């Protein structure tokens, strides 16, 4: 018999915060499940607890995966058809920095 006790209090539910900025305005700021980004060598997906990364972005869509987004930012996004939790924002280029479950995307 094992003396192991499972204690849920030892676990933290980690949130992932993303901020998307252009020179003109804040496109989005809030919690997401993950983000799909257009990279030079193809799309790449950043999820919670991803290793730190800095990368350039090419033209394409930044896709946020979240149950919902704040109404103040919803006007900046299109919803993927048939996918309630995917919100897309078109960019020409940019850069992303992600570390410790916080990411910032500077784009135009």
UniProtKB/TrEMBL annotation:
Subcellular location(s) of the protein: Endomembrane system
Boundaries of every ATP synthase F1 complex delta/epsilon subunit N-terminal domain copy: 16-107
SUPFAM superfamilies in the cross-refs: Epsilon subunit of F1F0-ATP synthase N-terminal domain (SSF51344)
Ranges in coiled-coil conformation: none
Keyword annotations: ATP synthesis, CF(1), Ion transport, Membrane, Transport
GO cellular component terms listed in the entry, alphabetical order: endomembrane system; proton-transporting ATP synthase complex
GO molecular function: proton-transporting ATP synthase activity, rotational mechanism
Classification via Gene3D superfamilies: F0F1 ATP synthase delta/epsilon subunit, N-terminal
Main location: membrane
Domain of life: Bacteria
Topology versus the membrane: Peripheral membrane protein
Pfam families: ATP-synt_DE_N (PF02823)
Family per similarity comment: Belongs to the ATPase epsilon chain family.
Function: Produces ATP from ADP in the presence of a proton gradient across the membrane.
Record's protein name: F-type H+-transporting ATPase subunit epsilon
Organism: Chryseobacterium culicis
């Amino acid at each position: 018999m094992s003396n192991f006790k499972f204690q849920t209090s030892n676990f933290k539910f980690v949130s992932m915060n993303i901020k998307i900025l252009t020179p003109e305005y804040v496109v989005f700021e809030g919690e997401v499940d993950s983000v799909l980004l257009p990279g030079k060598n193809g799309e790449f997906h950043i999820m919670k607890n991803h290793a730190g990364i800095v990368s350039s972005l090419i033209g394409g869509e930044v896709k946020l995966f979240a149950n919902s987004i704040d109404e103040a930012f919803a006007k900046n996004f299109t919803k993927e058809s048939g996918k309630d939790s995917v919100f897309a924002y078109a960019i020409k280029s940019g850069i992303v920095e992600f570390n410790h479950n916080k990411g910032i995307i500077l784009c135009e």
